[in-house]
Write a structure and sequence with these properties.
26% of the residues lie in helices and 23% in strands. It has 161 residues and is an alpha+beta fold. The protein folds into two domains: 3-128, no CATH class; 130-161, no CATH class. Strands 2-3-1-4 form a four-stranded antiparallel beta sheet, with helices on one face. Helix 3 (50-59) runs antiparallel to helix 5. The longest helix has 10 residues, at 50-59. It is globular, with a radius of gyration of 19 Å. The two termini are 25 Å apart. The model is unreliable at 140-157 (pLDDT under 50).
C-alpha cells in the first residue's frame, strides 16, 4: 500500500472538498444536481489561476462541481443557479463548497497541504467514505440459516460525481 493510501485510508481516490473564502466562488461552476439530473457539463477549471495550476500539477486532470444547490428554486428566482444563493448560504459557506476530483490520487496529500496555504481557500479536506453499521445488509448464507448478522457489518456510501 502506498504512503498516500495509508495516510488517506477512508478517502475516495482523488476526491477533495474545497471551501473558498467569501466572494471567491466563480459563478460558472455548475451544481452537482444540475450535472447529474439535467446533463450540465462538469467544470474543468475553477479560477483559471493558481488554484487550477496546483490542481493540475499535483493531480493531473480535474473536474469540479458545487456540492450544494441553492435553496431558492428557479420558479421563485429565474437566474443562473450560482446567483440564487442567499446571504445566509453565502455566509455559512454552503454556497462556497466545491467537490473536486483529480485523476492522479497519489498527489492528493501534497495537494491538500498546498491548497490549505492559498489565501482564497478557507478549508480543504479529502472526500471520505461514510461507514455505518447496518442490520439490513448481511451475507445471503446468514439469511438462509436464519443467523442474525454480525452487529458491526458495515456499508459504504458515496455519491457519484
Amino acid at each position: 500500500m502506498s504512503a498516500a493510501r495509508r495516510l488517506l485510508s477512508d478517502a475516495v481516490r482523488g476526491g477533495l472538498l474545497i471551501t473558498l473564502k467569501l466572494g471567491e466562488m466563480p459563478t460558472h461552476i455548475p451544481g452537482w444536481r444540475a450535472c447529474t439530473r439535467y446533463g450540465t457539463p462538469v467544470a474543468d477549471r475553477i479560477d483559471g489561476g493558481v488554484l487550477d495550476r496546483l490542481l493540475r500539477h499535483h493531480g493531473g486532470a480535474m473536474r469540479a462541481v458545487r456540492l450544494h444547490s441553492a435553496r431558492t428554486p428557479r420558479r421563485d428566482r429565474d437566474v443562473v443557479g450560482a446567483y440564487r444563493f442567499d446571504d445566509i448560504e453565502q455566509i455559512s459557506g454552503v454556497a462556497r463548497v466545491l467537490r473536486v476530483r483529480v485523476r492522479e490520487a497519489e498527489g492528493v496529500p501534497p495537494l491538500l497541504q498546498a491548497l490549505a496555504e492559498l489565501p482564497v481557500v478557507e478549508r480543504v479536506a479529502p472526500v471520505t467514505v461514510c461507514h455505518t453499521p447496518s442490520p439490513f445488509f448481511f451475507p445471503l448464507q446468514a439469511a438462509a440459516n436464519f443467523i442474525t448478522p454480525h452487529p458491526f457489518l458495515q456499508i459504504s456510501l458515496l455519491l457519484p460525481l
